[in-house]
Predict the structure.
Amino acid sequence: MDNEGNAVMKVISNDLFGRLDIYASSDDITAENVVSELNTALPYHVQNLLQEDFLYWYRRNVQPILRRTKEVRPEILNIVQENHADEIVAFKNGYFLTKPAFYVARNTGAQDKVNKLNEFLYRSYKHAADNKAVDWFHTVGKGVILIEPDRDNDPETPVHCYALDPRSAFVVYSLRPGNEPVMGVNMVVVDDRAKFDVYTRDYVYHLSGGVTGKMLTTQVNSSFLATAVSVDSVEPNALGLIPIIEYRYNSINMGAFESVLPLLDEINNIVSNACDGVEQFIQSLAVATNCEFPEGTTSNDIRRAGMIVLKSIGENKADFKILSQPLDQTQTKVLVDHLKNEVYRICAMPLLNENGTVDHTTGTSILASSGWYQADCAARNTEDLFKESNKQFDRIFVEILRRRGLLDISLSDFEIHFDHGETVNVQAKAQAFQTLLAAGMHPELAAQKSGISNDPVADIEKSEDYLKMIWGDPTKVDEVEQQTNGQGEAEIVESDNNNGETESGGSV
């Protein structure tokens, strides 16, 4: 890596602060001003791009430790990487999307429509796009999804979803309250040429331009800049909505491991030094005093032999000994474990126990002290931001289905749901559910608040008979008492339409 590349990498690694949101000077993007508005936005995007590129490669083990040098005994130089950046992203991905996100009904009358909506969602490969977008925003702070109708009007797969590289795709927002998107941009760079697809509410502009500078992994030319030159073609945006959507990991657009980069670098440095210490202990130097060596022996020859030569003054006898110190790396391990736990704590991940493993013990207090509660909270904060961005996706998704006559559903009929790796045990959830019911809360709300159900509306609907028995259907209660003589758990007697068969009551 040349000096310029090293300098740029150092600047980037020391000046990360989250990706910038980009704003337009005008909300009205037209063929007359689209080139100028895009060129105003591009320098901010390039600034984000350079930081995103650094984080992208950092996760892939292109880290500052690779530039490590050593003045004392430079021949013993270990470069060891504990890639906790990838570990953090992998945990966040798996925990946030334990299962694919899906839609749940907000009222019982919409359940059938929501089931069809989920089927179309599955066929659009939204789950795959979500996985990639989530991986991106955990890595660099932002993820991007493009949604568009099938060009062949395929009724089986009417909608297509794609995760875009945030280093090439971005959204420009209005400065007005609410910061609505003004244009979405996807950039493709080939050599010194650049192509831009710019989506506005009314039109899609295809622009061409150029770039100066280039990027090669973390070797970044600081003069890198993309520039739009001309509009090649224009086509109407029939949807009237911008199909490029940005998803955020947090409100400041930082990646999941970005805030702990100094700690990660220090762990790599300490572990590398520790390995040097072991090797230097094994290859301890021998000291020769007043010793003769074969003619032609150089100081480098002697050093390669693991020796150094000392010449004494006076008539001292020749002496020979090994330079070594007791090797005790206990404190090194303590320090490394401390740094790792700080990384996990700051990143809201489960902490390591004394054995270096994660504690999976249940119980609310234990879960809170071990970091699982913090992981839950962080995932739910990310979920809120995801839902906010996904509203734009929902508008476009529903509009495409409605225009093609495949499904007529309102945005108020559904909401997106995430099934995280839940940490609170079932017993605690059940107790919370019962407490809320006893306080007079509606079963759907109680199921939602307690976390006992992933889809309260659907589960309540399936358990309707049982719930009526519990909450005030005298007929059912009488039937149960007749069947059980007032003893034990209830079974619900179905109507004659079920030929008098009984069905055990379900639970939410």
Remarks:
- Confidence is low (pLDDT under 50) at residues 1-14, 216-221, 486-508.
